[in-house]
Amino acid sequence: SDLTSALTRKITLKTPLISSPMDTVTESSMAIAMALMGGIGIIHHNCTAEFQANEVRKVKVGQRTAMTKREDLVVAPAGVMLKEANDILQRSMLPIVNDSDELVAIIARTDLKKNRDYPLASKDSRKQLLCGAAIGTREDDKYRLDLLMQAGVDVVVLVRKQITFNVFAIPTAFLQLALLCASVVVTAAQAKNLIDAGVDALRVGMGCGSICIMQEVMACGRPQGTSVYKVAEYAYHANVTFAFYVNMSSEGDKVKVAQGVSGSVQDKGSIHTFVPYLIAGIQHGCQDIGARSLSILRSMMYSGELKFEKRTMSAQMEGGVHGLHSYEKRLY
């Protein structure tokens, strides 16, 4: 099944998976892994603006350096295709220069290997991995946003854990980017407020994470199913995409959406093992429903051909493993 999904109006992903902007989840290494497998990582902002921008830069351009003299270099022109680059690549790295003989990029053998091993990789028009970053809505976040833009960030997530807030004036230069708003959106009214402010996508959920206690402690939040339904209903007519959290405890949950690794497995393993497992689960779910792609699945939902049914606790128990003396669930 084709899992291509729109992240924003300008960016599509071949895998509908996003890693959360949490300091225990997403920095450059996770963002690189997510992008290689067709998703995208959102770098957290629980750090200085300079540190966050450098993490984005690691994803976009890496940390390669070249110390060889120009006259000793074998170079390729800007715009060279990977196949052509592979034919002329003699050393471990191939500098790419423009018409003025200025260095614009470097291709390494590892780049060619990754292009072969990760055909679903999320890349921009310059063949660099896609990367997102989170910011707040305070005045000093404008400085953070400026550094992120200079680092080449593709998507910015606005994070503010309050029911309503005013989005600060977005710089004109930033309008070239796709803006993903992560503002704990749970109502159609919030969605309208943010869409009118110019955001390009919405992130749905308040207090629904597997280890989140916001609804219990602060008496603030909304059931995730209701949040997704209300926001999606408004966003669909406004032609705005949205992402949302779901806690996974079964195979079927992945058809709704996949969240992250921290609440899904007891012992966290390699993301390169876990994400393919999630992808396969979503694909199998689409096939069982009879949808060849996620876009078809959405069309079936909006047309009424596909509907959710409320299942009793007895039905849920019957639908899982039961009646055995002992059972150990293995994810992969």
TrEMBL record:
UniProt cross-references to InterPro entries, sorted A to Z: Aldolase_TIM, CBS_dom_sf, IMP_DH, IMP_DH_GMPRt
Catalytic activity, as annotated: IMP + NAD(+) + H2O = XMP + NADH + H(+)
GO biological process, any: GTP biosynthetic process
Keywords linked to the UniProt accession: CBS domain, GMP biosynthesis, Metal-binding, NAD, Nucleus, Purine biosynthesis
One Pfam family matching this protein: IMPDH
Record EC number: 1.1.1.205
UniProt enzyme class: oxidoreductase
GO cellular component terms given for this protein: cytoplasm
Annotated SMART domains: IMPDH (SM01240)
Residue ranges occupied by any IMP dehydrogenase/GMP reductase domain in the UniProt entry: 2-241, 253-322
Top-level taxon: Eukaryota
Pathway membership, UniProt: Purine metabolism; XMP biosynthesis via de novo pathway; XMP from IMP: step 1/1
An example Gene Ontology molecular-function term: IMP dehydrogenase activity
Function: Catalyzes the conversion of inosine 5'-phosphate (IMP) to xanthosine 5'-phosphate (XMP), the first committed and rate-limiting step in the de novo synthesis of guanine nucleotides, and therefore plays an important role in the regulation of cell growth. Could also have a single-stranded nucleic acid-binding activity and could play a role in RNA and/or DNA metabolism. It may also have a role in the development of malignancy and the growth progression of some tumors.
Protein's name according to its UniProt entry: IMP dehydrogenase
Lineage of the species this protein comes from: Eukaryota, Metazoa, Chordata, Craniata, Vertebrata
